[in-house]
Amino acid sequence: GYGDPINSQDCFSTIIAYIDDQFERYLHDESGLNRRHIVDNRVHCCFYFISPLGHGLKPLDVQFMKAIHNKVNVVPVIAKADTLTLKERERLKRRILDEIDEHGIKIYHLPDAESDEDEDFKEQTRILKTSIPFAVVGSNQQIEAKGKKVRGRLYPWGVVEVENPEHNDFLKLRTMLITHMQDLQEVTQDLHYENFRSERLKRGGRKGAEPVEVDKDMILLEKEAELRRMQEMIAKMQAQMQKQGDGEGEGHHV
Hints:
The protein is mainly α. Helix content is 52%, strand content 11%. The chain has seven helices and six strands. β5 and β6 form a beta hairpin. α4 crosses α5. It is elongated. The relative contact order is 0.10.
């Protein structure tokens, strides 16, 4: 599992490779002729789950977040928050934020609400900001609590409801993702993708080890092939139009 080996460096190499591959694919599509219908599969947000059992960040947490914080918007999340009391949860949140700042880790910061926004949205933004890192509880079971079915966890001392904001931050995390999706995409485009693209241009190729000439030749060949396909389509359309025109002329002549 994640973090189990003695040398855990390879634990997140697959994730980093996936993020880079999506940037690579987008860059390739952006360099083509048909740029109107680019499918954006770039990773706009990464929820990084932190164990509630430790006393803050583990060395692996620091190493991983520093490896990806210039590639993707990182949102720290405390998992299994029902194992903590409210005081323990708040103490762990403060500890994690202090360590994030101490190690220079760049996490996603929610933008301030505009002055012309309504007061409810401003208050919602303030609450979301103070909730980071989000402490969540997960469950795939429906249980009965106070006469209604809820998604949650049943314990001898009571019920933890997943979608109850008094029990955990799941609803806040979901709200953050929905209301700030556009900002997440803009930060990806303007910051993380531009960093990736400028690094590619500095290295001169798609992958750092590939020669510049190979990359240029591949792009040129792909553009030429796409141009040929378009020319063939136009030629077929012109031939069909000509054929229809000839048929109409013959019918008129008769």
